[in-house]
Amino acid sequence: MTELAIRAQGLSKLYRIGERQPYKSLRESIMRTLAAPFRAGERRPPETIWALDDVSFEVMRGEVVGVIGRNGAGKSTLLRILSRITEPTRGRVEVYGRVGSLLEVGTGFHHELTGRENIYLNGAILGMKRAEIERKFDEIVAFAEVEKFLDTPVKHYSTGMYLRLAFSVAAHLEPEILLVDEVLAVGDAAFQKKCLGKMGDVARGGRTVLFVSHNLAAVQALCQRAVLLRSGQLHLYGGVDEVVSTYHAEISSAEGSLAARQDRQGDQRLRVSQLYVFPLRGNPGDAVRTGDDTIFELYYENRSGQAVRNLEVTIGIYDFLGRAMTFLENAPAGVRIDTDAERGSFRCVVPKLPLIPGQYVVNIQLKEYLAVIDWVQQALAFTVHDGDFFGTGKQTFTRVGGVFVPQSWAHRARAKGQPEP
Amino acid sequence: MNSAEPLPLVVIEPTRRAAALRLGELWAYRELLYFLVWRDVKVRYKQTALGAAWAILQPLMTAAVFTIFFGRLAGIASDGLPYPLFSYSGLLVWTFFAQGLSQSSNSVVGSAQLITKVYFPRLVIPIAAVLSGLVDLAVALPVLAFMMWYYGIWPGVALLVVPFLALLALVAATGVGLWLSALNVEYRDVRYVVPFLVQLWLFVTPVIYPASTLAPLLQRLGLPAWLWGINPMAGVVEGFRWAMLDAPTSPGSLIAASTVTGFALLFSGAYYFRRVERSFADVV
pLDDT of A131-172, one tens digit each? Predict the structure, then answer.
């Protein structure tokens, strides 16, 4: 018998955008109130955006559901409503059971307090009872591997220890429904592996889990079903494999040109307007084959009129499952870029493209020292076709690993009776 | 999983009318309230070199300055009590109120990190900020006892009223704190208003001078003396001296008026806070 865990009906959330200051000043409010009678009818509605637009779905008890979609598709807003941090503008959700939300690891950790003290504080903030924390205390400490530093203020912890402890407290939360947002995006590979393992335990433990992630491999590994959100609307809800491949088709399709993308981060002094990947002996639009000398070309616009010094361009290449393959960066390559031009382009040539055939996604980031100027995730998807990497006229059929490496082979046969060298 | 066990149902939907106080929910989160108070106290004492000594030094130094300028030089009356004792006793409760008010008014904005990541009744934040001041009050009380012993002044039966007066100070500080902390989310001007407000409020509260100084003024205006109790701290400070130091005053009507305004502030503040809290996570 299956029981309902979550039922969302017509869930919508309206946000105001474009106001420079999200909060008002008292003076402004008073002036506006005083002036109001004199300019009735002149009132202009503020610019708004439906972060969620009429989303309905049901989740059964014990299901593990992935939530995927581009940045700004409404994933985080959905979790924030389900965890009651913010109210929906319209619609309603019925939630059966205690909800625990893990939107960030280490919420409420205080640097001055010791590991022990933070376990209690963080546990209480996440909704655990004191007795519950006491019962699980040893388990939490053991999982985090911080026994020796329990009475040290966490400000002296290494980043790894801090994250382990923070995740450990959260992982021992035992609500009937767990909401998880991108917590695996922090820490090193070992930490991520540990988190993923723990998440797997939770998922198999019969708990209802909603899991937001950009890591499609993790979503596929943990979830049976998935929700695909697109511009605040529920686009598809079904089996995880079907939804993940639909999502991949979505980010691959050319619809919605790069210049029109609004889901960017950074101060926007420069904006990446176009991005092409094509063979050196070819034109934009031509198919890329493994082993080709390949051009990554990126066009930018500068509408701010401000100069940028020592620009750092990063072209991040990810495979189908969201695993980083390699980063192309001008700064480590020893190329300095200063620009005050209105328009321009950067071209990065990769000799003998070593990526194995398959589908890839490109993230673009422009930075000036620590300041992000423009950051577009999934700016482009491209396909690498079979090619002649080794220049031998033979096709490569490799589909394992990620890259080809230039290599040379030698074989020396030893004749009978010849002595050891 | 045992599917026979009934699971609690929570319905999430937009709040339409003025929200209820939902005190039951607040009670369910009492452990979080405890831990937040515990954190505030612990961190405050850990971060400062003198730690708990500040709780004593602050009112004590201020009392010393007041004694020199107002007691000696200006010769302000003190209901027949030694001026140092008079001012320290007043400052003790005043400091609790002023600290609670300032801490709580910044508490919600200061907890933006929590508010945008976890759900809990937001009321616990400003309430915890006020409650943590009780520890400072408790630390500073023995000094008052020592001064009373030194001056040979003993409390009478009215001492029994002291807990009620402490509660009233708590209620008043929480009430004002709720208003200011909620307003602060939307109007960041509040942080500049608070120090100014606290300063002005001190002068309309009988800390430096006794209530008896103002009574003739009110009389001349044809107003009853209890009217001053509209300032809830007037009743608390005057009442505290009467109850603790057996001061020769009769602040009954003053305390009554202060009780009414104190609780009015608390309830109106709590309702206002509840009404606007749903937008905190979006604005803060």
Answer: 999 999 999 999 888 899 999 999 898 877 888 898 888 888
Asked if residue A193 and residue A91 are part of one domain, the reply reads yes
Q: What whole-number distance in Å separates Cα of residue A221 and Cα of residue A80?
A: 24
Q: Are A14 and A71 found together in one domain?
A: yes
DSSP element (H, E) containing A159: helix A159-171
Please indicate whether, in this complex, the C-beta atoms of B282 and A91 are within 8 angstroms of each other.
Answer: no
* Number of domain units in chain A: 2
Same domain, A147 and A52: yes
Choose from A9, A55, A84 for mutation: most chain B CBs within 10 A: A84
Instruction: Provide the ipTM.
Output: 0.85
Cβ-nearest to B283 among A23, A83, A206: A23
Backbone angles phi, psi at A316, to 5 degrees: -95, 130
Residue predicted with more confidence, A203 or B88: B88
Chain A residue with minimum CA distance to B43: A112
Instruction: Looking at the structure, tell me whether residues A368 and A242 fall in a common domain.
Output: no
Instruction: Identify which of A87, A112, A126 has the shortest CB distance to residue B278.
Output: A87
Exposure class string for B133-161: b at 16+ Cβ within 10 A, else e: bbbbbebbbebbeebbeeeebebeebeeb
Asked if residue A34 is part of any domain, the answer here is no
Residue B153, both tokens: 């002044």
- Residue A126 sits in a domain whose CATH number is 3.40.50.300
| A276 shares a domain with A202 | no
- What pLDDT, on a 0 to 100 scale, did the predictor assign at position A184? 58
Residue A419 lies in a domain: no
Q: What is the pTM for the complete model shown?
A: 0.73
Predicted pLDDT of residue A395? 59
Contact A103 B189 (CB under 8 A): no
A positions 18-37 inside 8 Å of B (CB): 22-27, 29
